[in-house]
């Protein structure tokens, strides 16, 4: 942060004004600086909280209002807030690569596809999320098109064969678009097409998708092989789905151990999700945490009737059962991946409460 002279104004400047006695004149001057965009934000300092001054401060859109004597911590926090906001704006100016979230089952049938599909469509419903892609990596047995009642024309087997010619228009044209807004890339239905997948090509493809989408959700399946390890390596977050059953917990443990031995990416990226959770389970959550030496990140309630009916109708849960507890849980899970606006409370709301 640098202090500027009155002649050295700039569009991004923050103006800090200690209000004197000629309040009307001072507000007029501040307003004209804001209107001409010579300054971007204003902090006001005043010796009292005169309601007339407060009203004017609200009207001009002052970001903070400090009472004298100044409290150092309050000022520091306000400046931090501005700094964060600037960073966010700058990030928007130069688009960041999309976030990759891969879903990995600790065993077959634990709900990896249910989670991947519903996480993707829930993210696509968030106001702040612009684009979501969903990739099915289950060779031959990919089920995402069934879960979303899609009839895709292409799968990634065809894309990786033509990887050298891959361009964004081509890719956008061949992805299947679901009504939720999610773009789906299914897996090949035959073994010969699946063979074309090699880790380098898959990372090229995923890197490409990352440039086009804010979120890339990958249903990785349940096998640890060089492709799934590559995907995990590229992922920002890996959701390891497990049930509270002995075989699942034991598998989760083996997967975590393997990953920590391989040391190709930090183990903290892995988040444990317990699916089909029942509070009266034989294995309590803290016992499971003890045996896998890791905190459980999320639990999704057990609701077979709702999930199976949604799957059979090819409908995501937010449409099939918007009020169900499982739908709410999956929606809240999606929220954990969306950045929150840190401007929760305005300064004048805080001041009024004093
Ligand atoms: N929270 C839940 N409560 C009850 N049943 C669930 C839940 N989540 C998923 N299921 C059921 O579990 C079954 C398997 O789900 P899903 O196909 O998503 O698992 P998967 O791990 O992808 O399986 P696969 O190994 O075959 O790919 C489905 O019948 C689904 O209805
Ligand atoms: Mg599956």
Q: What's the quick description here?
A:
This protein is of the alpha/beta class and 354 residues long. The protein has 16 helices and 11 strands.
Question: What does this 3D model show about the protein?
Answer:
With 354 residues, the chain is α/β, with parallel strands linked by helices. The chain starts with 13 loop residues before the first strand and ends with a helix. It contains 16 helices and eleven strands. The longest helix has 22 residues, at 72-93. It has two domains: 14-93, Rossmann fold (3-Layer(aba) Sandwich); 99-335, P-loop containing nucleotide triphosphate hydrolases (Rossmann fold), CATH 3.40.50. Strands 6-7-5-8-4-9-10-11 form an eight-stranded mixed beta sheet, with helices on both faces. Helices cover 45% and strands 17% of the residues. The protein binds adenosine-5'-triphosphate (ATP) and magnesium ion.
How are the elements arranged and paired?
Layout (H helix, E strand, L loop, with lengths): L13 E5 L4 H13 L5 E6 L4 H10 L3 E4 L4 H22 L5 E7 L6 H14 L6 E5 L7 H4 L8 H6 L6 H7 L1 E2 L5 E3 L5 H4 L4 H14 L2 E7 L4 H9 L2 E6 L3 H17 L7 E8 L7 H8 L3 E6 L2 H9 L4 H4 L4 H11 L11 H7 L1
Parallel strand pairs: 1-2, 2-3, 4-8, 4-9, 5-7, 5-8, 9-10, 10-11
Antiparallel strand pairs: 6-7
Bound molecules: adenosine-5'-triphosphate and magnesium ion.
